[in-house]
Amino acid sequence: MATRPFTRPRCLLPLFLGLFQGALLLFFALFVTYDEPSAQAEDADLVANQVYSTFPFFQDIQVMLVVGLGLLLTFLPRYGLSALTHNFLLLNFSMQWALVLQGLIYHFHHGQIHLDLHKLLIAEFAAVTVLISVGAVLGRTSPCQLLVVATCEVPVYLASEWVIVNCLGVLDVGGTITIHVFSCYFGLGVSKALFWAGRKPLHPKETPTPRSDLMSLVGMLILWVFWPSFVAVLCQAGHAQHRAILNTLLAMSASAVTTVVASSLLERDGKLSPGHLQNGSLAGGVAIGAVADMAMPPVAALALGSLSATACVLGFRFLTPLLGRKLGLQDQCGIHNLHGLPGILGGAASAVAILVVPKDTPWSHFSQLSPAGGNASEVVGEQWGDGGVSRQALCQAAGLAVAIGVSLVAGLFTGAALRLPCLARPPKQLCFDDSLYFKIQGQDESLGPGNMTEEGALALKQRV
Question: Do residues 335 and 190 touch, judged by C-beta distance below 8 A?
Fold first, then answer.
């Protein structure tokens, strides 16, 4: 009798994932196939070129998300195992869920969905939004709650991306607006609705240790190295992709140096903050995405990287405490400082760049691949011919507003849904602790106040 209350939450995760994977197997068996091999040499060469040009970028992005982002989230000393595992689980769950949704929306023809590498890449971008958003509630949510976030966020992201890119014709080759800004405010909406009572005192397990900060810093370095692939993968091969890589490298280099300067100046003793380094060094990559392939001088990329890093560090130092006091907003990983502020800065920079770039510049035609598989630059070119650059700049601002508004509202509704008791939200005493979800060697033999098995932890949850 005593074990019944916590049996249902413990079985909910395998039940949810098992039903999902079973339904996915059935869906793929009925509707998903590969393209038929073509006998024409031209088509075969086209497929080969797509694989050779895209797959190296795809591999880089895989390393970024699985290793780099996973390690970046290990700054919580007793939650590293959970952070890495949940990040890996959400990536695979969200990517498969996005494949189903985008296949039904964009690619369902004659009763079948033809799968290729580009569709898998776009699905992985949808998963990125989930991985960023859950950073706002890292350590305070159960795996079941995280899966609900992914289930709700992916369709909203696909819908907002379609409106921003296909309807408004927004230029955002690196996902500054469609990915970073959207995921940031979706996560903040989830956090606000889930923890509506306001900001709580610092949890004793939240304080990073030198070892956890070092692991997180290694994750930042991996992300920093591979970030140009994330920005440039959707550019058309050639000059546009070359510019995107160069601009991203310049922006991230400037953000790394500026982060050291800003962090040192803000600390009284001139020492560096590991949290600033872990986030500010990546801010340039977030901001540059919207303008990476545009015809701007190299100094503009350097300036944007420096500004975004400064905004990120200042956000950690001043804005995050202010939002916590005034709005009761909890942002565990500081996604507002790394993705929100630099994302808004990059979106604004894209509008300014469009206004100042001469129309007769050889590189003034921007080319990016749309999520539906077509060429988004064709739609943009038509708009520029009719309304001119001012109209396109207005579209950039409108896309930024749509991303913030839609994500914030959807995040609030999703956060409200996470308050359901059946989703096994961890109690305050057991937040930021791997022992709640993993069997850890040496902790199951002795039962003490600070050493608790999963059964004991879940029993405590029921009492709370």
Answer: no
